[in-house]
Please model this.
Amino acid sequence: MSHKIIFYPVGNGDTSQIVLDNGKRILFDYRQTEKSKDCKSLEIDLDKQLKKELREAKKDYFDVVAFTHSDSDHINMSTEFFELRHADKYKGKDRIKINTLWVPAAMILETATNDEQSDEYVIWRQEARYRLRIGEGIRVFSKPDKLKTWLEENDLSVDERKHLITDAGQIAPDFSISLDGVEFFCHSPFIKMVDENAEFRNEASLVFNIRFNVDGTIFDYLEVGDCDSDILSDIVNISKKHENEDRLNWDLYNLPHHCSYKALNNEEKGERKTVPVISVEELLLHGKAGAYLVSSSNPIKNTCDAYEQTQPPHIQAKNCYKEYLENVSGTEMYVTMEYPSEEKPLPLTFIIDSDGSSVERNNADQNGVSSIISHPTPRAGCK
Model:
């Protein structure tokens, strides 16, 4: 038995996929750009790549598509790719179906006017609301008072839809570690993140401990949206309070917000290296021996200009992460737009099996074969 976790080189954006041994597929976020359709672009043509993978698997759907939140770098051009149920104009052709849509409650509830939102966000809000109204094909994470009010306004009750709602601290019932070899423990969003904020997009991102069990070997994957250090600190402290500290463990950590320093320390980037706040430091030290870090981002340069860069990725954050990875005897930090090279980035695939984890190095463009390496040689980079 083995599973795969695939990260796609989509620039400063997020798209990853879990492919289970039983064939089920879970896609996290979707970012396509017009330029990525150009054969000269370094960013992958995600539309073409995902459809190719599905054809090879003889599928025209994903079992789950999870949008961690609704910023454009997590949904861009997705309404052109997926089949949506709420309107005929989004059906048919070669659109890809979604069996179950996973969204944070914020994606149902955000109330800014259409003029203040991206067109695609408005479309996904309509789709999520439609699925919740009819009571199928959706899972909503968090049950704030605002959601209860929304349900009542639509002549529904929490009891009628509670089977479609999962709160922080609970395991999503769509998958079973005994049957599927995986479970999804929801760290966030918390109820207070929605009820106490008028704008709650990043604060209410989906955050999971995804735990695999292959023949008794446990592998923990932290899938994190665009959280800052305040939210991650809440996750750490609440996990400790409820004796869920084991859910902070990680063999693989998908770094928040394209290696932004704000996921380490919301207030201070640092001159050469970001110093994490105490609770985030605790999280970093939950890494296991042999662990990996992944930054879904553009290349992270070790140049003078990079240290002055405002937008992520931040070299100061990378310097911090690499130090803590070394402290826990981790294996490697990967940057999606650098793998296997900046000149030709390709999907980065982790194989999860009874031996732990390994990285599938895709050399198909060079010699037509792929190889698997358990302990990749670290590349030269920023120190």
User: Anything to note?
Assistant: Confidence is low (pLDDT under 50) at residues 364-383. DSSP finds twelve helices and 16 strands in the chain. Residues 119-134 form the longest helix (16 residues).
